[in-house]
Amino acid sequence: MNQYTSEKLQGIHGTSVKRAFYIGRFQPLHNGHVMVINMLCEQADEIIIGIGSAQKSHTQVDPFTAGERVLMITRTLVASNIHKMWYVIPIEDLQRNALWVSHIRAMTPPFDQVYSSNALVTRLFFEAGVDICSPIMHERDSLSGTEIRRRICTNGSWEDLVPYEVVQVIKEVDGVSRLQDLMLDDVDISERANMHHS
Amino acid sequence: MNQYTSEKLQGIHGTSVKRAFYIGRFQPLHNGHVMVINMLCEQADEIIIGIGSAQKSHTQVDPFTAGERVLMITRTLVASNIHKMWYVIPIEDLQRNALWVSHIRAMTPPFDQVYSSNALVTRLFFEAGVDICSPIMHERDSLSGTEIRRRICTNGSWEDLVPYEVVQVIKEVDGVSRLQDLMLDDVDISERANMHHS
Amino acid sequence: MNQYTSEKLQGIHGTSVKRAFYIGRFQPLHNGHVMVINMLCEQADEIIIGIGSAQKSHTQVDPFTAGERVLMITRTLVASNIHKMWYVIPIEDLQRNALWVSHIRAMTPPFDQVYSSNALVTRLFFEAGVDICSPIMHERDSLSGTEIRRRICTNGSWEDLVPYEVVQVIKEVDGVSRLQDLMLDDVDISERANMHHS
Amino acid sequence: MNQYTSEKLQGIHGTSVKRAFYIGRFQPLHNGHVMVINMLCEQADEIIIGIGSAQKSHTQVDPFTAGERVLMITRTLVASNIHKMWYVIPIEDLQRNALWVSHIRAMTPPFDQVYSSNALVTRLFFEAGVDICSPIMHERDSLSGTEIRRRICTNGSWEDLVPYEVVQVIKEVDGVSRLQDLMLDDVDISERANMHHS
Amino acid sequence: MNQYTSEKLQGIHGTSVKRAFYIGRFQPLHNGHVMVINMLCEQADEIIIGIGSAQKSHTQVDPFTAGERVLMITRTLVASNIHKMWYVIPIEDLQRNALWVSHIRAMTPPFDQVYSSNALVTRLFFEAGVDICSPIMHERDSLSGTEIRRRICTNGSWEDLVPYEVVQVIKEVDGVSRLQDLMLDDVDISERANMHHS
Amino acid sequence: MNQYTSEKLQGIHGTSVKRAFYIGRFQPLHNGHVMVINMLCEQADEIIIGIGSAQKSHTQVDPFTAGERVLMITRTLVASNIHKMWYVIPIEDLQRNALWVSHIRAMTPPFDQVYSSNALVTRLFFEAGVDICSPIMHERDSLSGTEIRRRICTNGSWEDLVPYEVVQVIKEVDGVSRLQDLMLDDVDISERANMHHS
Questions:
Q1: At CB < 8 Å, which residues of chain B contact E?
Q2: Which domain holds residue B137?
Q3: How confident is the model at residue A198 (pLDDT cuts 50, 70, 90)?
Q4: How many domains, chain A?
Q5: What ipTM score was computed for the predicted complex, to two decimals?
Q6: Distance CA B140, CA A90 (A)
Q7: How far away is chain F from the Cα of D5, in angstroms, using its nearest Cα?
């Protein structure tokens, strides 16, 4: 028994495979991302998920490592009954916008279609002559990485905004305490340390 | 129907998942690599395949892009009836050996076991306290990237040394002519150009 | 007939050539820059124009590529009847201030005089023992890159603040729509996409 | 006569040397840092002082070069009657938090204990399994680099907040005028230049 | 009187400007390069000369700085009665072949035609769908940078292999002694120093 | 009691301190280096020892980390009864020769004199107008890092070529086995692994 069904093999071996590319930082992967991925699956034979700013981690804006994000995405895809071939690829920043599309192309299998709502990504692929779809974003107020990280930091309610598998990974890597620690300032740390020692 | 069988889900969701890491440049993936991957599958719940020197391409030693190598490996795994969960992750060089193990750990899901026959990789993981297996290499004379690239350049017989899917990918990306072009020197190019123009 | 008149050749071949260096980001070149360049031409035999942050492009602050800026400056110099030899040289950022003067010296022909109103540039050349002139800035409210980019983004009136040749180049490279696209946020893009699709 | 007393030699040669690591940017070294260093000396056999962001200088936030900071720290240690072996080591930024602890370890002699009140440093060493002490910060309002640089820029009173040797070094490297120059904006520079020329 | 004749202005302002791109390291510029440049001038309206490995200098293979090479090329073009608009642009290495064509495009005005006899350059532009001409190389044995640098190091006869202006620049920057110094090994240097001191 | 005698304090506080700079890779520190350091101590008030290629380690040519080399040098200086103030400073490579002298100056306290027998270092400081001494190298055949590393790899006799403290450090960091492991090729590793498993 094989993890790829005949339906998928058709995709991977066919000469007319239609691949879609979707990039995000996934800090963390949330239900808004999953909706986009589901939409991609309906429109393409194979999907490529690029994890942007792969070299970043342990900041308030980019708390999770690339490897942790690979785990979040893969587990969620597995649990989501996705019937398409997928590729999950960490991509380091290049800091040179004019070269970014070539960088993406070098790091991924060939693709025909890009899904993004980011202004820079959209413009760069447009100038490169690539077809872009900007998916409608649902519930932008809550379904955003910024809001989810804010809730994690303030012990708010965040678990319902992300897939169950992401909750699991964040717990396994001690992600809640990591985010809360990263937002402390120096005085907090001294005081906390002081309490421990007194 | 899902690409991950219940056997695999057990791995990905279990708390005691045993992951093995295997890194290579895969320029290109060959049958020796596949033997090692098969061995890993027997000994671990999930396997992580790191594609080293991901930022390199279009040289005689590193002809293929990371994306092309992702394609080679994924297609081969699909065709190989692998019964384990896998991750295929391009990893850029860091040029700082003392930080390399941390770099790998940041880019991948957690793992317990490393497979490598490379002296530097072996030493670095050893100093980091990680268990290493050095698989026995079969038919090192022919099953090596160096030998396979040499044969491609000289129109020798190389197709039997790599999986069928790799032959396909190399053909799709015009890899044979790329390798042969890269080995030309300036005089060759002028002469060839001269012939075309005369 | 030659593009360099005898007057200029005297400069380039003489042993006592006096070269002046002027650096800016030129995002885009505007009439304030041109006034400074004209002043340089009166005081030096040859002028070197360094294009700073050459590696940047496609951001709201640095929208144009180095090549586009080379084109803006060269066309404007040609149309300006400049009677001096000039060099237009893109210079990538180094991110190490203490090495910046050496970086500039390595990328340009030797020079004796620097023109700049930037605090950091002025201080760095001062510490390196180089003569600096800080030209009086005219009409700083309108003759600034920040103001011109703001007007381009908001469909304000900007064409009179830059040379005619710069208007041309910006139009040729679709610069107005690039700047306006880069300032969109995610919601704008989704809505715009939505309208297109409905 | 030797610069290391027998007491220190015991430290450096012993097999059970206990080394403590303390990192800061030291822009500049101030009395708060010195208090921490004194505390370290009471608790460890040898102390390692890491100078962070070593590649930075000539900005309002990071005005001094690594070499200037080495001089500040060394002169102060010498004048402070420190009875312990010390190492003063400039450390360049890596821009990859997940690799930062390995970077520190590669650049320094082995250590067992870390002193820091910085949230990121504390978290990173915690995840690496290293013991961390967060020293109580005294008089945070005045004993902070930010406040001291602000006072230098505005001709306020700052000399009492730093060791005497630091005042010396800042004067020798013309640090006050450097900081004040770096905070000028373009208009100031033009006006000042204008006054000089009129 | 202006440095650009009406003939050239036609090029720079026309909508159908045909630009040719030629890249080399020019260590140093020699008569073989000049022949290619002359050929370009016959076939294009404007020419772009890219100075590769711009960040390198002071090695036996790359002895001259980018600024020195800008000077060599510009002076030679001026003296050569070139009737076409030109751009001389230093280009730093990127170390990522798959991104190199985008890098070149970002640093230069748009071009339609590339001239190169280098295998890698030729292949990369071919894969990017750009027209390439490989000029016939004349007298490759003597008209090569390698041979000219060898002769400079060994006090051989090299002045006839490069334009007169290049001889001038090399002398002005003390280039002969630089190259000869760079090839000394440690023992030579000690002995030479010893002689000086004895 | 203080680690710096009054003799040294005179150096560190005086306005006319004469500092000498000596750079090497110290892979490892050997008796030839120590002879040069002793000579420096006779001729300068303070000495600065720069550890080049600080970011490198775990290769056959650069086996030891910067931190390990700091330890070798510091322990040896302590044991050598050096009566001068010293600074031991790891310096990362910059890969831009034209900026290297500025890089050194930014990372170190000010100095007036450079000691080096390296052709590139000597030339770069010469072009920067700095005084250079090229010390006579004694017993170059054996007192070279290359030879010492070769002997370590082949179980030759190397302990007499380096200070006693360096032998200690190399043993503490398991340096002999590190060097021997790094020189193994893939087949060796497989065979060795095979023996272990059989």
A1: 55-59, 65, 174, 178, 181-190, 192-194
A2: 9-197
A3: very low
A4: 1
A5: 0.89
A6: 32
A7: 6
